[in-house]
Amino acid sequence: MAHWRGVGIVAWATQATGLHAGEMARLAEEVGKSHALGSSVSLVVNRAPLPTHEARRVIHEVTRRYEKNIVCAATVIEGAGFWASAIRSLVTSLHLVGRWSFDLKTFSEIDTLSEWLAPIHTRAAGTSVEAKDLAGALAWVLSQPPIQELCARRG
């Protein structure tokens, strides 16, 4: 987990649990200390299983708590087939059930996510973000040893 220019970034390379979602809550608090408005990016990689019920509950609560401060949220779901469809369906259902006031979209690639999010974040949050720089920040998060180790274990 990291944040950059008001964009909170969470990489899910394993099943999200209540504990992981709690860390996401701390990230939201940290971003909020320096940015009145921010955006959220989730990177779902390594064929991570669906989040636990507890994780979904905590994510919903955190999102509801910070909803008025969220400019937009985006998720990259790397992969194809049944797994990717299941994760995309979950994200879509969370958006529909939550009836969030911010834009939320799913993508299969970092570059297309970055091209969508950067101008929205720049305009609404007032923090200049270029798509190529955001893509670089997201790639940096995925290159970190803990994420790489989880991906290597899964093969």
Structural commentary:
This protein is of the alpha/beta class. It has one domain. Helix content is 56%, strand content 19%. The protein has helices at 18-34, 53-66, 81-98, 110-125, 131-142, 145-154, and strands spanning 2-4, 7-12, 38-44, 70-77, 103-107. The chain has a five-stranded mixed β-sheet, sandwiched between helices. β4 (70-77), α3 (81-98) and β5 (103-107) form a beta-alpha-beta unit. The chain starts with a strand and ends with a helix.
Order of helices and strands: EEHEHEHEHHH
Which sequence of strands runs across the widest sheet? 1-2-3-4-5
How much helicity do the residues have? Answer: 55-70%
- Number of discrete helical segments: 6
Strand elements, count? 5
Q: What gap, in angstroms, lies between the N and C termini?
A: 22 Å
Radius of gyration over C-alpha positions, nearest whole angstrom: 14 Å
Number of domains: 1
Biggest sheet character: 5 strands, mixed
Query: Mean pLDDT, rounded to whole units?
Result: 91
Structural class: alpha/beta
β-strand percent reads: 15-25%
List low-confidence stretches.
none
Shape: globular
List the helices and strands and how they pair.
Layout: E1 2-4, E2 7-12, H1 18-34, E3 38-44, H2 53-66, E4 70-77, H3 81-98, E5 103-107, H4 110-125, H5 131-142, H6 145-154
Parallel strand pairs: 2-3, 3-4, 4-5
Antiparallel strand pairs: 1-2
Helix pairs in contact: 1-2, 4-5
